[in-house]
Amino acid sequence: MPQISVAIAYTSGYGHTREFATSVAGGARSVAGTSVDLVDVATITDAGWSTLGSADAIIFGTPTYMGSASGAFHAFAEASSKPWMQRSWQDKLAAGFTNSGSMSGDKLHTLQYLALLAAQHGMHWISLGLLPGWNTTTASEHDDNRLGFYLGAGAQSWNDQGPDAAHKADLSTARHLGRRVATAGHIFAAGNSITTAGPVAID
Ligand SMILES: Cc1cc2nc3c(=O)[nH]c(=O)nc-3n(C[C@H](O)[C@H](O)[C@H](O)COP(=O)(O)O)c2cc1C
């Protein structure tokens, strides 16, 4: 079984988004042959940059602050202009998740921003791949993807509760994202092993 590596590049001002980052990591780890690193980009070191540089996939995560990624995440994104210049993230897989106080809270804008960041780096964006939950009279807030995002995973955390109160459906959705990216990583790695071996013969 070939080994692939998934890095989760996240920030969390008050600990809520870290809960979802941990679930994304758990989902990726559940796919055999996958090593997973969590990189807190607010305090990223040279070792952290090198972890991102050697990963097969990077999953970006940030709280939504004022309708976009947090300032700490934006600082990291600006600092990623160095790998951007070197094209060192080109052709890696990418995905994203965000968390905020409101059900919407303009999280879609944050996910769009994360996808755009990935595109600037020439990465391949992996969507959430779940149908929306909680959108019929028989559905419930305990459904995966209860907030109905397609581009990535969205989570909601009460502003008056600590990280321990993270919603189980959002944790499960985050776990799904990690598993999906790791699975895609293995499929890409298998494809790369064919294409780097030379042209594929077609009868
Ligand atoms: C500066 C700031 C701006 C915020 N802006 C939004 C927002 O635009 N939409 C929203 O739904 N919640 C907003 N919130 C609430 C946070 O998204 C929410 O508390 C989240 O759980 C924080 O995650 P963290 O603990 O990982 O930092 C904001 C919070 C702060 C501190």
Task: List bound small molecules.
Answer: flavin mononucleotide
Order of helices and strands: EHEHEEHHEHEEH
Radius of gyration, in Å, reads 17 Å
Which secondary-structure class do the elements indicate? alpha/beta
The major pleated sheet works out as: 7 strands, mixed
Per CATH, the class reads Alpha Beta
CATH superfamily: Flavodoxin domain
Inertia-based shape: globular
Number of structurally distinct domains: 1
Figure out the total of helices.
6
* Intertermini distance: 28 Å
Strand content: 15-25%
Pfam families: FMN_red
GO molecular function, one term: FMN binding
Organism: Winogradskya consettensis
InterPro entries: Flavodoxin/NO_synth, Flavoprotein-like_sf, FMN_Rdtase-like_dom
Key structural traits:
seven-stranded mixed beta sheet; alpha/beta; 7 strands; 203 residues; globular; Rossmann fold
Would you kindly provide a brief summary of this structure?
With 203 residues, this protein is α/β, with parallel strands linked by helices.
Overview of the structural elements:
It is globular and about 55 Å long. It has helices at 16-29, 46-54, 71-79, 81-86, 107-120, 168-195, and strands spanning 4-10, 34-40, 57-65, 68-69, 93-100, 124-125, 153-156. The longest helix has 28 residues, at 168-195. Helices cover 39% and strands 19% of the residues. The chain has one domain: 3-Layer(aba) Sandwich (Rossmann fold), CATH 3.40.50.360. Strands 1, 2, 3, 4, 5, 6 and 7 form a seven-stranded mixed beta sheet that branches. A hairpin with a 2-residue loop joins strand 3 (57-65) and strand 4. It has 203 residues and is α/β, with parallel strands linked by helices. Helix 1 (16-29) packs across helix 6 (168-195). The chain binds flavin mononucleotide. Flavin mononucleotide binds next to helix 1, strand 3 and strand 5.
